Amino acid sequence: MEKTYNHREIEERIYKFWLENDLFKANPRNVLENKKKPFSIMMPPPNITGRIHMGHLLNNTIQDILARYYRMKNYEVLWQPGTDHAGIATQNVVERELLKEGKTRYDLGRDEFVKRVWKWKEEYGNIIINQLKRLGISADWSRLKFTMDEDYYNAVIYAFNELYKKGLIYKGLYIINWCPRCYTTLSNEEVENKEINGKLYYLKYPILDSNEYVIVATTRPETYLGDTAVAVNPNDSRYKHLIGKKVKLPLIEWKRKDYYNNEILNEIEIIEDEFVDMEFGTGAVKITPAHDKDDFEIGKKYSLPMVLIMDYNGILNENAGYFKGLERFKAREEIVKKLSEHGYIEKIENYRYNVGICYRCETIVEPIISEQWFLNLKFFKDIAKKVVEENRIEIIPEYGKKIYFNWWDNIKDWAISRQIWWGHKIPIEGEEDVLDTWFSSALWPIATLGWPNETDELKAFFPTSILITGWDILFFWVARMIVMSLFFKNEVPFKKVYLHGLVRDEKGRKMSKSLGNSPEPLELFDKYSVDGVRMGLMLITPEGQDVRFSEKYMEVGRNYTNKIWNIGRFLILNFDGNYQPLKQLQIEDKWILYQLDDVIENVNKGIENCEFNKTAKLLYDFTWHKFADWYIETIKTREDKNFAISNALFIFENLLKLHHPFIPFISEELYQKMPFKKKISIMNEKFPNKYGFDYKEEFENYEFLRSLIEEIREVKGIFKVQNRKDIKIYIHSETEEKLKNLVKEHFRIIKFLGGIESFSETNEKLKNSAIIVFDKFLGFLILENYDFEKEKKRLEDELETIEKLYNSIREKLNDNEFLNKAPKQIIENQKNKLLELENRIKKLKIILNV
Ligand SMILES: [Zn+2]
């Protein structure tokens, strides 16, 4: 067996081995014929434009842990993989490619362009899938789905038509988020907020037949061209006398037309409505129904005309008069200049506020009215809330529920049409738009299984067992899958949703290319091995919270896999070919077996409850600090070596199985080399269940020996003789009989692990010795040719110094002035220091017998 874990070679070979043996494949017949219970999980489909990033790593590692665990628990596991066509994102990529050739999509025309996207997809669309495979994930690749596959396409169109027939899809004029660059509508969730340093403009509107003005404040002065009212709060005494009067929009001498091409007036009314915030600006607000969400609602309420002032490229139109043809931000400059020249601007203030930006291209989003297709989400509100309230869908962690309910309580209809070419074309005569990408991914749990046909897959694996996803797509995706499954299958899409956090950098910042804080997963694999990265990640992923990524932990993961490799190698090298586990059990065997049971129970529970971090830590501590540090070390003292190694192999067999979901490659490779190998793959083995080892007494006895050894090591350290093995221990007759016997009986362990030559009993309190005393135990360590008394003098001096330091720190910590002034971190450090000194003082006092 190789000295080191050569991960690159092993990962490649083992993954091929799994694929060749069809170990990831799901067979619905096993469920339908009642041979196995189903466990099914849908992979959130990555975009075909995607490259693997830390988020995928986290998301897929968790899914893989579950898939591998339930397979070993004898479930029929379907892990359904696939990719998403990602409408806008993919279209952008191909458009950028075209731009390099000096062309736009219009040069090609729709059919050619879509062909071009397909060609791009064939070439690059599966890069992310191949990258994910390196992570070792065990999805059923023979079932790989794409949201534009023919059968999937048909399912999407079928769904649209059914919803349309029921009147749940409708076309309407609506204020939408529009990206003039991507030339498409964006859903609310596709708009990101960005805080900017902008300006607040105070515009003066002259009141008709009066010398008075009303002043309105706005961050988008160009929209005044589309104003059709001014609104004030009815409780605002400043404006009471103006209600019902009209203002004249400055500079506008041309005719304006509304959305339906009717001519409208440039003299607009001052209306009253409670929604107006008296504190904002001047308390009077301009109303532009065609370009603002709130104004759109007011406009509907009072039947105000809607005046579009620009086209969908963001260029001002006829309604802008001589500003026509200007780009919207250029127009803002020009309009402000003109208004200012004519004295229509009262003042301009610096103002920090949020703008909506396109999540694909970061262009500032324009709210604009447009004819769009909508899905009536309000219709689903009650039932979608109810299934979560009644725990038919369990959301972990709890806080996800609150966010979910809150979203439904403020639900707006969902604009499902997009003005792009790449996607599912809306199946209505004359329609050019395609459906929002999320409309098709909302059908993911059913359409991947062959719906609307009643397939075996659907019967066996739906509803799915659990969905693993980041909380950032709770609404984009999770809520909408719930809607579609309830509507079409009258059933929830999954019984559980586990929302994991985002992967952030060590400082808690979002990972991004521009910050350069986003590590390349493939490089991490090369450096730390896939298993090392998976384990490292699970060790730092707190349940349901964001992850603070640190490469240090990938190193921890790698060291851990090396440790496991070394344990395996030690066992193989010391194995004589005769495997006889659980015979001739000694105290250390019983000690470890007793704890193994506990570990088995908690790993089962931990994975089932999605407590991956806790479970990874448990495995780590047990394997490294109990099994390797103590058990393996202890059995080196055994005469009946083969029985000892057999027992160790038995524990190791269980450990490999328990670890397999977390670190699949190394556990498989070691399994293949071990005498306990019975199946083709460790994946075919049963996941361990508690054995019921009843060794509590032996466990406690060994724990006593362990603390005695630790005590001896510590005292040897204090006297700086830790490397000497010729130390004798004398046990005082006052020591409890049981403990005396334990030392006598298991002296081989103390001798080897404590570095002690011999032991005797004594009635005296021995001088010239180091004292070991704890819990009904008193012993003396004696070393020939060593002046303990002299060393004790040194330690007494040390004690004195430490006590002085201790007192001075304690005084400081009682000083209110210090506590008020000093930084928190310093106070914390001092407190820790105090505790450290206190322990040292106690220890010294004991061994010096003060
Ligand atoms: Zn955009």
Looking at how many chains there are and whether they match, the oligomeric state comes to single chain
Could you say what the CATH topology of the largest domain is called? Rossmann fold
The CATH superfamily of the largest domain turns out to be HUPs
Give the termini distance in whole angstroms: 54 Å
Task: Please state roughly what percent of the residues sit in beta strands, choosing from under 5%, 5-15%, 15-25%, 25-35%, 35-45% or over 45%.
Answer: 15-25%
Structural class by secondary-structure content: alpha/beta
Question: Which CATH class of the largest domain?
Answer: Alpha Beta
The main sheet comes to: 4 strands, antiparallel
> Overall mean pLDDT score?
92
Widest sheet: strand order? 6-5-16-18
* Whole-number count of domains: 5
Q: Low-confidence spans: pLDDT under 50, at least 5 residues?
A: none
Helix content: 40-55%
Shape: elongated
Bound molecules: zinc ion
- According to DSSP, the number of beta strands is 28
The CATH architecture of the largest domain can be named as 3-Layer(aba) Sandwich
Number of helices: 29
User: Taking Cα atoms only, what radius of gyration do you get, to the nearest Å?
Assistant: 36 Å
